[in-house]
């Protein structure tokens, strides 16, 4: 893989990370956000004994697991 392709990939992953971080912040602040795929509302799901805290839509196409201590 040449360096220009590597730089392009690095920029793409950085943008994806920052987009997810911004989405998580908005959801945790209580703003109504829609999934880009299904247009259903994205919600915060609290940690339970069987699963980690998540930010997800009801259909599950957006599902981000949060590492909350």
Could you give a short description of this structure?
The protein is an alpha+beta fold and 69 residues long. The chain has one helix spanning 3-28, and strands at 33-34, 41-45, 54-57, 63-65.
Tell me what you see in this structure.
The protein is an alpha+beta fold. It has one domain (3-65). It has one helix and four strands, in the order αββββ. It has one helix spanning 3-28; strands spanning 33-34, 41-45, 54-57, 63-65.
Topology summary:
Blueprint: H1 3-28, E1 33-34, E2 41-45, E3 54-57, E4 63-65
Antiparallel strand pairs: 1-2, 2-3, 3-4
Sheet with the most strands: spatial strand order: 1-2-3-4
The number of domains: 1
Over the alpha carbons, how many angstroms does the gyration radius reach?
15 Å
Spans of at least 5 consecutive residues with low confidence: none
Beta-strand share of residues: 15-25%
Number of strands: 4
- Mean of pLDDT: 94
Defining key terms:
single chain; alpha+beta; 1 helix; elongated
């Amino acid at each position: 893989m040449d360096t220009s392709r590597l730089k392009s990939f690095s920029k793409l992953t950085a943008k994806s990370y920052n987009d997810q971080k911004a989405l998580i912040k908005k959801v945790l602040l209580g703003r109504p956000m829609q999934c880009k795929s299904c247009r259903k509302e994205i919600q915060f799901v609290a940690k339970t004994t069987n699963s980690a805290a998540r930010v997800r839509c009801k259909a599950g196409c957006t599902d981000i697991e949060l590492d909350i201590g």
